[in-house]
Amino acid sequence: MTIEDELTGLHNRRSFLSLLRRHVGFANVRQTQVALVVVDIDGFARLNGAHGYAFGDQALRHVAAQLRLVAREQDYVGRIGDNRFALLLTRIMNQGHAELAVQKLFRQLEVPFEAGQGKMRLALTAGAALSPQHASQAEFLLRQAEKSLELARAAGLRWLFPPVVDDSQRFSEFWDLEIELDGAIQRGDLLLAYQPKLRMDDLRPIGAEALMRWPHPARGLVPTEQFIRIAEQTGQIRAMTMWALNTAMRHASNWKHGGPLSVAVNVPAELVARDDLPDMVENALQLWGTPEVALVLEITERSLVTDPRHSFEILSRIRDLGVKVSIDDFGTGYSCLAYFKDIPADELKIDQSFVRGMLTDTASADITALIIDLAHRFGLTVVAEGVEDAQTFALLRARNCDVVQGHLFAKAMPLDAFVQWLRQPVADPTGAAAASVG
């Protein structure tokens, strides 16, 4: 089997991925760290168009040579795409070592290289990720590094690392949680809790958001952000999302209520652009869907930033199934205002940081009012989450918000408690007559 890229003499994609799997496996067993740096030549297609393919080949060989100079004896360099390279740094102590390697590469590329009769300086963008901090499997480590590259490019940065957790935590508590999370679905360890969503004008329940919980027998309730991050790093997030879709639809199919309800399920960013997401949703609908319950998928703004066109196509296919799309935490991410008119969505959820600041921060109140007005102009429903007091509720009602969700009415609760809650009247916190649930 050929292991070298013919043009550059580096490891080809297949050979490099084999090495990556091996060394990520070593790192898992030995509890050491490796770093993966992925590099693209900016505007490579334009360079080929302007100077010819021979020049492009020369540029590729130049980048390959610079990466070899950065690599230590125990490191590996590969060409994994047309103008995409990867550098595997083994046995590093911390993220700083990987950052030094990236900085060295960029310093070397500041020197122009010979290009025909003249000289040219190449521009590169890089993304990086660490194992096991960002992923403990090779394929997901590569995906994290490539995601960092795309985010760096979108933000106008030369290179980017995703956030990391504290190393001392990672090798003790986080390591154990990774192992225990594997198989949690099969053991029945994960649960869904439901937080009601209420229509603003009469406080009639219109549905609930399904929130994943992991009540650990020894640790207690594991923070959701913690185990979701681990699931994303280890590649378990797809199976967990599929479980949540089916479980939420199964539970909701048995809810008894005087009118239609919806159940909202959170979909992580990495799944939004996957071509098989509509199939996952359609399968859940075929198994558990009923006319009385509508499915809502909640996604975050950052789900759309890497490849908006493709993400929009996926979401449009999902809406064609009769499923609604909600943009969660709106206003805190990459703010999709540039392509707002094209978003295939039905609902916006104002981030709770703005909602909770409405009474004390004029900017938060103004941003909330602007989001409500903008959403209504495009025919979108607006949900305010994190509503915790009557004064904020009254202000949101005055701003014509459509739906409210928060501890003022109910915390997220187990299925049985939510079913019981649905049977109770909901009191208006401003002192108006109680709304009948029916």
UniProtKB/TrEMBL annotation:
Pfam families: EAL, GGDEF. Residues 32-165 form the GGDEF domain. It comes from Cognatiluteimonas sedimenti. InterPro entries: Cyclic-di-GMP_PDE-like, EAL_dom, EAL_sf, GGDEF_dom, Nucleotide_cyclase, Rev_trsase/Diguanyl_cyclase. Coiled coil: none annotated. This is Bifunctional diguanylate cyclase/phosphodiesterase. Residues 174-426 form the EAL domain.
